[in-house]
Design a protein that fits this description.
alpha/beta; TIM Barrel; 2 domains; eight-stranded parallel sheet; seven-stranded mixed sheet; 21 strands; binds N-(aminocarbonyl)-beta-alanine; binds zinc ion
Length: 466
């Protein structure tokens, strides 16, 4: 099956250029100048022609930080692999990397197989896994090497959540040593969980129970401190480091310093830290619970620092940390005790549009938009050049994006399985028009036209950045 995408502007990090794109079966096979004799011949031999006049033709978005159906205490995140990947596709994301989790006392392989089973046959788009290591011991370290061979080439360690997912410094250092050896990359949730737990207990004993105290007990200084520590541990291990969901200026300063010294330190931020602030946690009654995530939303001033970090490449990637919980019955578990509110926000459907809004507002170039949402994620996590670029030989994961369209975000019209939107009422410039996943049209005119089970598991290679 040959398909020609004609009349559009192809955007890669290297530039934006008017170009015809020829797709054959699952892959992009050629790019050509409009009006060239080659392009005219393609038009005649193609089975289908898609008119992309006035549209941007970009590589499908890659969201490297999602949590579909992630268990948390008595509940679990409300998007399944089916609903979450469908919403992702509608929002212009054609690949997710989710987190398989090792339960304490169990092997990494058991966790990995459990997550493979949840996703298998259910995904609208391609998917891979990072592995959350919650039990660092000599056995799990050996298992890391096996997982790398199986295409899981990144591992998340937590400096937060003592007693649950937390690892102490020795454990984090030990896992970094293993990664330095097997070529994988350690991802760190950098918040000082031990200090935070003290602040939480003190707040609760003073009767401070509302959602806003979630933010007040997780100060940005403790994100900066943990980021500094993670960087030093990675330096000792001579291992690369990836800081997830960076929210605070203090943490960014640490990343900038390390990168300026030439250390292989990378960081992602998330749309919620670029567009929302801690003021949301103060919404009356219990509405603030909708905005509870960790690290917490920060003040408005840090948003400018984060946009600057994206421009200067001190921040490499925008991922969502999509971890939705419905307000009703899930966020409500924390009524009267903020520490019981499930942590996490929805956003997998909104990321491409929100970061394009950054382009509209002059924060990022068009090319950088593609870079931080697709190309660098592919390179960082061993998917390039199969994913993350419009080039011959790459998978035909293609988004046709209409830069002139506007739309208003609302839970009434979104496709994520969650009963609210943290961006409710926001007017965004730009909209997804069509999405191809490996040559199949899965979204057309805002409607999902794919089928569950189309998405395949991606065995990832090693990072291209290390
Ligand atoms: O609040 C958050 N971020 N929930 C998801 C789990 C994590 O730490 O990434
Ligand atoms: Zn985290
Ligand atoms: Zn997360």
């Amino acid at each position: 099956m040959k398909m020609l995408i004609t009349g559009g502007t192809v955007v890669n990090p290297s530039g934006a250029i008017a170009s015809e794109v020829l797709v054959e079966d699952e892959a992009i096979v050629a790019l050509g100048a409009p009006g060239s004799s080659a392009a005219e011949a393609w038009a005649e031999s193609s089975d289908r022609t898609i008119d992309a006049s006035g549209l941007l033709v970009i590589p499908g978005g890659i969201d490297v930080h999602t949590h579909m159906e992630m268990p948390l205490g008595q509940t679990q995140s409300s998007d399944t692999f089916e609903t979450g990947t469908r919403a992702a596709a509608i929002g212009g994301t054609t690949t997710i990397i989710d987190f398989a989790t090792q339960s304490k006392g169990h092997s990494l392989q058991t966790g990995f197989q459990a997550w493979l089973a949840k996703a298998d046959g259910n995904c609208a788009i391609d998917y891979g896994f990072h592995m959350i290591v919650s039990d660092v011991n000599e056995e799990s370290m050996k298992e890391m090497d096996v997982l790398v061979e199986e295409g899981v080439t990144s591992f998340k360690l937590f400096m937060a959540y003592p007693g649950v997912l937390y690892s102490d410094d020795a454990k984090i250092l030990r896992s970094m040593q293993q990664a330095a050896n097997n070529g994988s990359i350690i991802m760190v949730h950098a918040e000082n969980g031990i200090a935070i737990d003290l602040l939480v207990a003190q707040a609760l004993s003073r009767g401070e129970r509302d959602p806003r105290f979630h933010g007040e007990t997780r100060p940005s200084l403790l994100e900066g401190e943990a980021t500094h520590r993670a960087i030093q541990l990675a330096r000792v291990a001579d291992a690369p480091l990836y800081i997830v969901h960076l929210s605070a200026a203090e943490a960014l300063e640490e990343v900038v310093r390390a990168r300026d010294m030439g250390q292989r330190v990378f960081a992602e931020t998330c749309p919620q830290y670029l567009f929302l602030s801690k003021a949301e946690l103060e919404r009356p009654v219990f509405e603030g619970a909708k905005y509870v995530c960790s690290p917490p939303l920060r003040d408005y001033r840090s948003q400018a620092d984060l946009w600057k970090g994206l421009r200067t490449d001190d921040l490499s990637i925008v991922a969502t940390d999509h971890c939705p919980f419905c307000f009703k019955e899930q966020k409500e578990l924390g009524r009267g005790d903020f520490s019981k509110i499930p942590n996490g926000l929805p956003g997998v459907e909104n990321r491409m549009d929100l970061i394009y809004e950054g382009v509209s507002r002059g924060e990022l170039s068009l090319e950088r938009w593609v870079d931080v949402t697709s190309t660098t994620p592919a390179r960082m996590f061993g998917l390039f050049p199969k994913k993350g670029v419009i080039a011959p030989g790459s998978d035909a994961d293609i988004v046709l994006y209409d830069p002139r369209s506007t739309h208003i975000v609302s839970a009434k019209s979104h496709h994520m399985n969650v009963d609210y939107s943290v961006y409710e009422g926001m007017e965004l410039h730009g909209a997804v028009s069509m999405v191809l996943s490996r040559g199949r049209v899965v979204v057309d005119g805002g409607k999902y036209v794919g089928h569950k089970g189309h998405g395949s598991f991606l065995r990832r290679g090693l990072s291209r950045y290390l």
